[in-house]
Design brief:
The chain has a single domain (2-209), classed as Ribonuclease H-like superfamily/Ribonuclease H (Nucleotidyltransferase, domain 5, 2-Layer Sandwich). The protein has a six-stranded mixed β-sheet. A two-stranded antiparallel ribbon has the order 7-8. The protein has eight helices and eight strands, in the order H-E-E-E-H-E-H-H-H-E-H-H-E-H-E-E. A hairpin with an 8-residue loop joins strand 1 (13-18) and strand 2 (27-33). The chain starts with a helix and ends in a 6-residue tail after the last strand. The chain is α/β, with parallel strands linked by helices. The chain has helices at 2-9, 45-55, 82-85, 90-97, 111-126, 136-143, 152-161, 175-191; strands at 13-18, 27-33, 36-42, 59-63, 131-133, 165-166, 195-200, 204-209. Helix 6 crosses helix 8 (175-191) and helix 7 (152-161) packs parallel to helix 8.
Length: 215
């Protein structure tokens, strides 16, 4: 499988973060290096930044909206541009046309997550890191993995079949950590130039793996 070969040949370090909407609920965090992935559940932005900086990754892939729909100035419904500019970006609309469903970034339940993603990604970039937005559900569809909603054990088994070693094989990990692993894998494809940028560069794009067999 193409992904297995990429894992074997890559010396890159990537970090994946499956971000939650607040520090109350832990986020999934994963780092890939030399064919091995390590996962953690981390609550605070401070610790997310500290743990990531310590690994010095070539790219940080975050599962959360990192930009606003073009024309919007706030994540909240009080934004005067809400009616004119809406709650979705081009990237979400393009994914939906492909049959890949994702949540609109500015529905009520996503607003705090989107704000946190924007702030956290800005902090990482100010520190000199390359940060991209990804969507593990879409990545899993492309890589032939089961989404967590359909079965976490099946998703973990699929990741292991790719040849990825790590603590997730010996301990029970959360669905957030499994998505963080998927985000870190997306980072490998990104660094290897095997990716698609879905959306508009001025508004925001989502990075997904692109297999050589795909047109």
């Amino acid at each position: 499988m193409e992904t297995i070969e990429l894992l074997k040949s890559s010396g890159s370090i990537t970090v994946g973060i499956d971000l939650t909407g607040s520090e109350i609920k832990p986020s999934g965090w994963a780092v890939f290096q030399n064919g091995v992935v390590e996962t953690k559940r981390i609550r605070s932005d401070k610790e997310l930044i500290e743990q990531t900086i310590a690994r010095n990754p070539q790219v940080i892939c975050i599962d959360a909206p990192l930009t606003l729909p073009q024309g919007r100035i706030s994540v909240f419904d009080e934004d005067p541009g809400r009616q004119e500019f809406g709650i979705t970006r081009l990237c979400e609309r393009l994914l939906l046309k492909r049959g890949i469903r994702s949540y609109p970034p500015l529905i009520k339940s996503m607003q705090k997550l989107t704000l946190r993603g924007i702030v956290l990604s800005s902090k990482f970039r100010q520190l000199g890191f390359n940060v991209v937005e990804t969507f593990p559900g879409g990545c899993q569809d492309i890589l032939g993995l089961t989404r967590k909603q359909k079965g976490l054990p099946e998703l973990i088994a699929g990741i292991s079949r790719l040849g990825l070693q790590g603590n997730y094989l010996k301990t029970k990990i959360s669905h957030d950590e499994a998505d963080a692993i998927t985000a870190a894998l997306a980072g490998l494809f990104y660094l290897n130039g095997q990716y698609e940028s879905i959306g508009d560069t001025d508004e925001g794009v989502i990075i997904l793996p692109k297999l050589n067999s795909q047109n």
